[in-house]
TrEMBL record:
Native source species: Salisediminibacterium beveridgei
PANTHER family (UniProt xref): ANTIBIOTIC RESISTANCE PROTEIN MCBG (PTHR42999), PENTAPEPTIDE REPEAT-CONTAINING PROTEIN (PTHR42999:SF1)
Domain of life: Bacteria
Annotated protein name in UniProt: Pentapeptide repeat family protein
Entry-linked InterPro entries: 5peptide_repeat, PA_immunity-related
Amino acid sequence: MEKKKAVKIEKPRIKQGLPRLKLGEVLNDEDAYRSGEVKDHFMDSQSADQVRFDQMIFKQVSFEQVHFHNIELTDVIFDQCNLSNADFSDAIIHRVSFNNSKLTGANLSGSTLRNVTMNGCLANYSALGFSDFRQVEFNDTSLIQADLNESTFKNVAFKNCPMDGVNFAETSLNGIDLSSCLFESLVVSLDKLSGCTVTSDQAVGLSKILGLNVKDG
């Protein structure tokens, strides 16, 4: 059997020694910030449209319940950040890493993601549906009850991700390997399952989801 090539992700292009950057207390529509590091900052519950962050590092920054519709993120690292219930819908996200961050209930629906990684994150109940994923990897990230429905996947990887109850309805899983992930049930479309890699135990579980009766022997 031909060995499947690993997904190659471009890392954020960020220079060493970025200066500490102070954000405004309130962000406004079309605000743009570039080449800086923000640490121990709170932006909770703010609203702004088309905010842009380029070549930025966020460390222990809270974006909880912000509404940054149409946000553009290019060459950005989120490290130990809280994005719970943040609204980043219709975002453009390119060369971005989310590391050990909380995205519970975050809304990234309708977004375009290129060269994105989520490492050790908590993204339960997140809304990622209707999005275009290319060169995206989820590593040790909890996606329980997340929505990934009606999305497009190209070179997407899920590694060691708890994902019970994930909604993949109308999303093609061709070329997707879920064998290292943990789930008892998923929402899937029968005509979109071809080419998905699962373990034998997972296959039995999926067959039950699809209404099949499986007999031993």
